[in-house]
Structure to design on (208 residues):
């Protein structure tokens, strides 16, 4: 009896995550507007009523799904902390590579970006959270790394005048292009090799 209760308790604890995973799959296939709570319940293998035990509405499911799956899994501060311990060009290259892995190669984060683009007007709080919790920390880290490289003489002085968004936006563009027309896209490793070659050419001071 105790074992049965333990199994039921474990299933109950896991159910919200299962519902959010089902929601992700349904929203990915149908889009937000065309997805109903019934669709999510059917994919999760639960009743519609079970969805409402954990979430108040489809909007609540969507917001929790984005929040649950959009958490960045890279330690942004570690790149700034590494300044002075290795070449600055290596640090910025590693950061940009990991940004690409996060928003282009990771299937969850790639789709979450698409959701945020498509539904940002309806979920402005999610857009604000993404900006404050994800975008700003990344851009601040890029800015700090570029500034350090300029002050140390490793980077051209004029590099410090370029907005950090300029360095990150091509990767975001690769994500968007993958959704707009995958046939016009190029594999992310090939893209990053060519992109980082341009970044190094622009950043590095003559003779470095």
């Amino acid at each position: 009896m105790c074992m049965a209760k333990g199994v039921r308790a474990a299933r109950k604890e896991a159910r919200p995550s299962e519902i959010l995973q089902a929601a992700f799959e349904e929203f990915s296939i149908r889009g937000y507007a065309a997805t109903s709570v019934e669709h999510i319940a059917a994919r999760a293998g639960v009743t519609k009523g079970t969805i409402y035990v954990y979430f108040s509405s489809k909007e609540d499911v969507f917001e929790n799904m984005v929040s649950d799956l959009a958490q960045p899994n890279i330690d942004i501060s570690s790149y700034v902390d590494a300044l002075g311990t290795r070449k600055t060009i290596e640090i910025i290259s590693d950061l940009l590579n990991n940004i690409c892995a996060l928003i282009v190669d990771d299937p969850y984060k790639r789709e979450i970006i698409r959701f945020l683009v498509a539904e940002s007007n309806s979920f402005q709080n999610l857009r604000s959270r993404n900006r404050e919790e994800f975008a700003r920390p990344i851009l601040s880290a890029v800015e700090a790394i570029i500034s350090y490289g300029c002050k140390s003489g490793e980077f051209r002085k004029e590099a410090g005048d370029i907005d950090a968004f300029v360095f990150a936006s091509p990767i975001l563009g690769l994500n968007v292009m993958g959704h707009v027309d995958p046939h016009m896209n190029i594999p992310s490793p090939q893209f990053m090799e060519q992109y980082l070659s341009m970044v190094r050419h622009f950043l590095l001071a003559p003779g470095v």
